[in-house]
Amino acid sequence: MQYNNELKALKKSGRYRTREILDTTIKDFASNDYLGLSHNKELHKQTVKILSKLPLHSSKASLLVNGYHQIHKDFEDDLCQANGFEDAVIVGSGFSANIAMIEALVRRGDTLFMDEKYHASGVLASNIGNIDVKFFKHNDMNELENMLKISNAKRKIVAVEGIYSMDGDLCDKRVFEICQREDTLLIVDEAHSSGVVGDNLMGVFDLYNIEIQNNHIKMGTLGKAYGSFGAYILASSHIIEYLINRAKPIIYATSLSLYDTLLGHNSLLYILNNNQLLKNKITKNQAIIKEILNIDIAGLIVPIYIGDNKKVIEIKNSLYNDGYAIGGIRQPTVPSAILRVIARVGESEDELQKLCKKIKKSI
């Protein structure tokens, strides 16, 4: 009973959390399964068919022991080709990927410049060891540029997200120009943008038509738009070589499961082969959000600011009782409570319209 007082305080403030078993009969507007690929049975069947023909079904070890399989290599190669990067490495999760990159890349004498709304995994990584980290105001490129100009750091590393997970806004395109001009490494966490924006739905590098440079590092996850689990890091061969030798989540963790890797690979090919169809669906859902809720969204994340923890949960629970799952996000994840709706293409446009009308009446 050592933490009773802390738990009571969380309940009193409306910040208490519980796990709930997934009800698959509820319309899902809460998860990050942006393209509905978690429900695509053909992708699952393709993956199982390939896996069943192999002499093993588990990766068995870390990448550096004997857990690096041709399945991993083939996926990495296709990721590089699709995104225009020189090299790649598969990682166990997006959370682990941020730990791997930041903990390994930021050495003594270096400074990490991080957007204040960067994901919690990156913030946690910046607290490991003696990392010198400086936060700049969200998407404030003037402040970032000024900070870089006056810095005497040995190496300067900037970390931003492609689409920010709670606000749903894009990183400023100028970050690419600034980092190039200031000879700065740039980490772009594309967890919520890969599969959602860009001509080929590859994310913000694709959206902004960025010519890949040696200072660019991209992280993407498989557990969101790709309907699988795991993550990848794309960069120059020099950076990937360094991470393989220094990043603890790569060196010491069992390599990504063969099923998840194969499924992620099949999803990548599906997205590339069906990008126009998927883009049309994304555009229609964005138009529905604008028409009913008058909110412009860059991707498929719809943040609705409420500011009251108890009211957020009341609205969330009321909608759940009506058959709709959405997110009710509270501190410390966000500064002030929001409803977080995901305009997934996995649900029908009709259901999205019905949900938006219900939300409009509730707020």
Structure characterization notes:
- There is one protein chain.
- The chain is of the alpha/beta class.
- It folds into two domains: 11-41 and 274-362, Alpha-Beta Complex (Aspartate Aminotransferase, domain 1); 56-273, Type I PLP-dependent aspartate aminotransferase-like (Major domain) (Aspartate Aminotransferase, domain 2).
- The chain is 42% helix and 15% strand.
- It is built from 14 helices and twelve strands.
- The strands form three sheets. It has a seven-stranded mixed beta sheet with strand order 2-8-7-6-5-3-4, with helices on both faces. Strands 9-12-11 form a three-stranded antiparallel beta sheet, with helices on one face. It has a two-stranded parallel sheet with strand order 1-10.
- Helix 8 links the parallel strand 6 and strand 7 (216-221).
- Helix 2 crosses helix 11 (258-273).
- The radius of gyration is 21 Å and the shape is globular.
What structural category arises from helix and sheet content? alpha/beta
What's the order of the H and E elements?
Answer: HEHHEHEHEHEHEHEEHHHHEHEEEH
Major beta sheet, strand line-up: 2-8-7-6-5-3-4
Structural domains: how many: 2
The fourth-level CATH homologous superfamily of the largest domain is Type I PLP-dependent aspartate aminotransferase-like (Major domain)
CATH topology of the largest domain: Aspartate Aminotransferase, domain 2
Give the N-to-C terminal Cα separation.
38 Å
Q: Mind describing the biggest β-sheet? A: 7 strands, mixed
Question: What is the total tally of β strands?
Answer: 12
**Residue-averaged pLDDT, rounded?**
96
Radius of gyration, in angstroms, nearest whole number: 21 Å
CATH class of the largest domain: Alpha Beta
